[in-house]
Design a protein that fits this description.
The chain has about 110 residues and is mainly α. It has one domain (about 5-105). It has 4 helices and no strands. Helix 1 (about 5-20) packs across helix 4 and helix 3 packs antiparallel against helix 4. The mean pLDDT is about 90.
Length: about 110
């Protein structure tokens, strides 16, 4: 496994264990919040890396407006990308759970 993927996996595990951002918690954020937060952290990293951009001095518009601004904690470009990757993974998992639940609710059996 690449070190990037390992770092994202470790961050996602930390989010679940230390922050209690469980699948049930994530399922409550069904309006693109995690994807928005991920894009904000990716933008922060890009602005740090690019010689043509200024580092962000305020919370990006993509960061969820329904979340406390205190949750916006940019760090180094690498740390921001790891955080973005973990949030993307959480959003993908949430979408998969949502699709699975819709499929089962439609009267279809997942095993068939």
């Amino acid at each position: 496994m690449s070190t990037g993927i390992a770092a994202i996996t470790a961050e996602r595990k930390r989010q679940i264990e230390a922050e209690a951002w469980t699948p049930e918690h994530d399922d409550e954020h069904d309006a693109g919040e995690m994807a928005g937060a991920a894009s904000a952290y990716a933008l922060s990293a890009a602005c740090q890396i690019s010689p043509y951009a200024e580092p962000l001095d305020e919370v990006p518009d993509a960061f969820p407006h329904t979340w406390s601004q205190e949750w916006w904690k940019p760090k180094t470009a690498r740390e921001d990308l790891v955080r973005a990757g973990a949030l993307i993974a959480a959003e993908i998992d949430r979408l998969d759970r949502e699709a699975s639940a819709l499929f089962v609710d439609d009267g279809h059996d997942e095993a068939t």
